[in-house]
């Protein structure tokens, strides 16, 4: 599936020919950790050849995900399972702004984010009469802020400052840190502001940096994974032992792992269990050796049986419980809300 670099980073494109070559060599299941466009191509290939395909959606440089919208069939030929839970960004933002009783706010998003990902949220808040503005944050944040001061009159700038009192940041952690630094240093925001940052990929180091650079009140929402309270059990999940480097949530290496890679780890465990189950039940199928040339290719006869074994299985791993619902998706996802009080002092405490 293309060349990889450190951190399991995918190549920008996956060539269909590469997938075909792998399938010719023999295959039991396909695991992909890629973007939506490539996932759609692999889904078509897996469905046609009856190869179980476990898809782990990856976001760009920590930018919030948008839903892929993979084509789901009602027929008995859907071989793609979604390992990473659906994008709940719309639901999360709506719950939070409703809880805070916000009626007027601005949403900043970076150049990597597809703003269509929160269209459902925008439709709902519009129906409820909320006043929402959108602004794209360019890569050169300093130039963006300078342009504001150069083009706006004093009264316009004051109105803009008032708008910034309530803001949602939908961007990767690095851009969020740079953006907050710029608006604080240029006095665009004051200590009575309240900003919300929503991103699944923010780790503890990012949180501390964001708090250190901000003033006012900061709320951070991210995906979290349940960790056993019993320290002696943290490295043991189900019938397997997790690497000591990964099982400690405070380990720097574990802290910096992308969420996609946590799901890759658990997916491999799940597949290992499924293959072992097949061997135990003496229902092992020879691997599919398939050709992508239409006239010579036939779907793998063991594909449906292998898919059902995978779907019925489950694993307790780094992401908690990984299993699949009737719709072929993993329903298990947890969010945590971190926040500070209003203030402008450095080193403010963060509480859950």
TrEMBL record:
Source organism, top-level taxon: Eukaryota
GO CC terms: membrane
Main location: membrane
Keyword Nucleotidyltransferase in record: no
InterPro entries with a match to the protein in the record: ANF_lig-bd_rcpt, Ionotropic_Glu_rcpt, Peripla_BP_I
Limits of the Receptor ligand binding region domain: 20-341
Pfam families per UniProt: ANF_receptor (PF01094)
Localization terms from the record: Membrane
UniProt-recorded name of the protein: Receptor ligand binding region domain-containing protein
